[in-house]
Amino acid sequence: MTKTRQGKAYAFFNSNASKQEIEEEIPYARELAQTPEKLELLLKTKVDGLGEEAEQGLIQLVKDGKWKYSIEATYPRARNYQTANELADLMNMLYNAQIIERNGLEIACKQGRAFMFRD
Q1: Sequence-ordered list of residues with C-beta below 8 angstroms from that of 5, at least 6 positions apart, any chain
Q2: Among the four 68, 70, 103, 106, which has the fewest Cβ within 10 Å?
Q3: What residues pair up with 106 in beta bridges, in sequence order?
Q4: Is residue 97 part of a domain?
Q5: Strands 6-13 and 69-76: what pairing?
Q6: In what order do the strands lie in the sheet with 69-76?
Q7: Residue 3: per-residue pLDDT
Q8: How many CA atoms are closer than 13 Å to the CA of 32, on its beta-carbon side?
């Protein structure tokens, strides 16, 4: 039995909005960004439960950062960089809606054995 590919990416960001306000805005941002329906998003405060895949190095980078929120994106049958691109589109829409701050926004995904921050 072959393992189904599943892309994963993370966004780390700051916002003056509450978690509830961000959660309420995400469906509109998804629609504008035209993200795939199968893209799953999980909004978290700080780095709570980053997931088993997140290596210690990424967790330390995040803890050293000044981010208030993170979004974990999962995209079945996609590569990590594809997932990061979809997540970046969503984050741009949240920025345009003035929900998140552009300063300090970082998107990361695993490339090979290391986590890379997307430009």
Answers
A1: 76, 77, 78, 79
A2: 103
A3: 12
A4: yes
A5: antiparallel
A6: 40-45, 69-76, 6-13, 106-111, 114-117
A7: 67
A8: 15
Domain with 32 in it: what CATH number?
A: 3.30.70
What pLDDT tens digit does each residue of the chain (119 aa) get?
556 789 999 998 989 999 999 999 999 999 999 999 999 999 988 655 555 555 555 656 666 667 788 899 999 999 999 999 999 999 999 999 999 987 878 898 888 877 787 76
Q: State the residue range of the domain holding 41.
A: 6-117
61 is a domain residue: yes
Q: Which residue has the tokens 């998804």?
A: 30
The reported pTM is 0.84
Q: Is residue 1 part of a domain?
A: no
CA proximity to 106, closest of 64, 78, 56, 77: 64
What is the DSSP track for 53-109? TS-HHHHHHHHHS--SEEEEEEEET--HHHHHHHHHHHHHHHHHTTSS-STT-EEEE
Name all contacts of 17-22 with Cβ < 8 Å and 24+ positions apart.
17/99, 17/100, 19/43, 19/45, 19/69, 21/99, 22/69, 22/94, 22/99, 22/100
